[in-house]
Design brief:
Layout: E1 8-13, H1 19-27, E2 32-36, H2 44-52, E3 57-60, E4 63-64, H3 70-83, E5 88-93, H4 106-119, E6 127-129, H5 134-143, E7 146-147, H6 154-164, E8 169-170, E9 173-178, H7 182-194, H8 201-209, H9 214-217, H10 223-229, E10 230-233, H11 235-247, E11 253-257, H12 266-275
Parallel strand pairs: 1-2, 1-11, 2-3, 3-5, 4-5, 5-6, 7-8, 9-10, 9-11
Helix pairs in contact: 1-2, 3-4, 6-11, 7-10, 11-12
Length: about 280
């Protein structure tokens, strides 16, 4: 791997990101920011955050293959990588087939898209693939720098590492709530897990494959499922849950801080930075 994302990064929807946020994240010691929410193909937000910082890596989590043509993503990649060498990682993925009117095989779409990135000379080391199931994980290992699984647990990370093998980036996303009150934390985490993810085939299939039952996935998700997908507690407890991904084979953990509506995530990210020993 030529792009060093560090051990811990921040996953946040594009609507909550800015150059100012990137400056703060870099000062807190995080290695990367992952732009969620299917950012626009021009990737202007990624470029602006890189322009404002000195070392932090910006990654997309993810550019949606249904939404952004590979040619457009490649052009943006080359523009940004030329300006900021070794600091931009193009994460791509299939998104949600339920949200597109032009449906075709998700796996075939991923293969074709990666073929087009090859033709556009986007290097394997400069791209990652959103992957949950075994076929997608193997494709990530074969055709990209690594896999970026979303809505995961350390148990999934262990299985993903077995499939990927060594030397392939594994960068799972983990949702967290810094609150020691379990009911309050679940009240924040459950809606994010439930809508839309527990209603999407690929995420449900992955959770069922991991041993969760249909009952666990219905009606907003069981407490046990929500607790597995949204780590909660004080900063030290949550840091331990993040480290568990590394213990199971992850190279990097993408931390998505969930808060009460409208609350600033930076206080929690500051606490976690200290608990994780990033500064």
């Amino acid at each position: 791997m030529t792009i060093d994302v560090g051990r811990y990064g921040i996953w946040r929807g594009q609507w909550g990101l800015s150059p100012e946020f990137a400056v703060e994240a870099e000062a807190l010691g995080y290695g990367a920011i992952w732009i969620g929410g299917s950012p626009a193909g021009d990737l202007a937000l990624a470029e602006s955050m890189l322009d404002a910082t000195e070392r932090i890596v910006i990654a997309t989590g993810i550019v949606n293959m249904w939404k952004t043509p590979a040619e457009e993503a490649a052009a943006s990649y080359h523009r940004i990588a030329a300006k900021h060498p070794d600091r931009f990682l193009l994460g791509v993925g299939i998104g949600h087939p339920e949200h597109t009117s032009t449906y075709r095989s998700p796996y075939a779409t991923m293969v074709d898209y990666l073929d087009e990135l090859d033709e556009a000379e986007v290097p394997v080391a400069g791209r990652a693939l959103a992957a949950l199931g075994p076929k997608a994980l193997r494709l990530a290992a074969d055709r990209t720098a690594g896999a970026h699984p979303y809505l995961t647990s350390p148990e999934h990370t262990r299985e993903a590492r077995e499939i990927l093998g060594e030397g392939v980036l594994l960068a799972p996303e983990q949702k967290v709530v810094l609150d020691t009150d379990g009911e309050r934390a679940r009240a924040i985490g459950r809606p994010v897990v439930d809508q839309p993810y527990l209603h999407l085939v690929n995420y449900r299939s992955n959770l069922l494959r991991l041993g969760w039952s249909e009952a666990d996935l219905d009606d907003g998700g069981s407490d046990a499922l929500v607790d597995a997908l949204v780590a909660h507690g004080d900063a030290e407890t949550v840091a331990g849950r993040l480290t568990a991904h590394l213990d199971e084979g992850a190279d990097h953990v993408c931390v998505q801080v969930l808060t009460a509506e409208g609350a600033d995530p930076l206080p929690a990210l500051r606490e976690l930075s200290t608990a994780l020993g990033l500064r």
